[in-house]
Amino acid sequence: MGNWKSASHNKYLLQYHLIFVCKYRKKLLVSQQIEYDVKVLSTEIYEKHGVSIKYMEVDKDHIHYMIETRPSINLSDFVRTMKSYVTYHIWKKYSAYLHKCFWKEKTFFTDGYFICSVGNVSEKTLKEYIENQG
Q1: What residue ranges in 10-109 does DSSP mark as E strands?
Q2: How far apart are CA 25 and CA 70, in angstroms?
Q3: CA distances from 42 to 26, 33, 62, 79 (A)
Q4: Which of the four, 4, 34, 59, 87, has the lowest number of CB atoms within 10 Å?
Q5: Continuous segment of H or E residues that includes residue 82
Q6: Is 46 among the domain residues?
Q7: Would you say residue 1 lies in a domain?
């Protein structure tokens, strides 16, 4: 896994598994060029916000990320920013193609997303550690 990070008043390791799905489960990421551009745009926005991508992989209709972040990052705001950024730039480059897929709406990802924390220990181990304090 990752290494602990330190800031002035905290030590942390915050890792998350994040999944974005294409709207209507359209298989938009089958195109190698769109897949490549989504990865490049994702990397740009993650770096701009100080979030590191540990792993990133696409399937036909969704993309997986394993990310590391700081405690000061508001994840829901970051996800909204990230999805908006990618959607805007993908539409800018592939508008003719995407108009055929979505007709009226300029969308790319579903409104929702999946996120789950990634820990270094099991729930059982953490429970035992907490119960044995004091």
Answers
A1: 11-12, 14-21, 52-58, 62-69
A2: 31
A3: 19, 14, 13, 11
A4: 4
A5: helix 75-102
A6: yes
A7: no
- Structural domains of the chain, count: 1
pLDDT digits (tens, 9 = 90+) for 38-59: 999 999 999 999 999 999 999 9
Domain extent at residue 123: 9-131
Contacts of 126 (CB under 8 A, 6+ apart): 119
At 105, the amino acid letter reads E
Percent of the chain with pLDDT over 70: 97
The owner of tokens 């950024």 is 85
Task: Name the one residue in this structure whose structure tokens are 């942390």.
Answer: 12
116: in domain: yes
Residue 107 falls within a domain, yes or no? yes
Q: Residue 130: beta bridge partners?
A: none
pTM: 0.86
- What the block records as the tokens of 8 is 């002035």
Cα–Cα nearest to 62, from 95, 23, 89? 23
In the chain, the amino acid numbered 123 is E
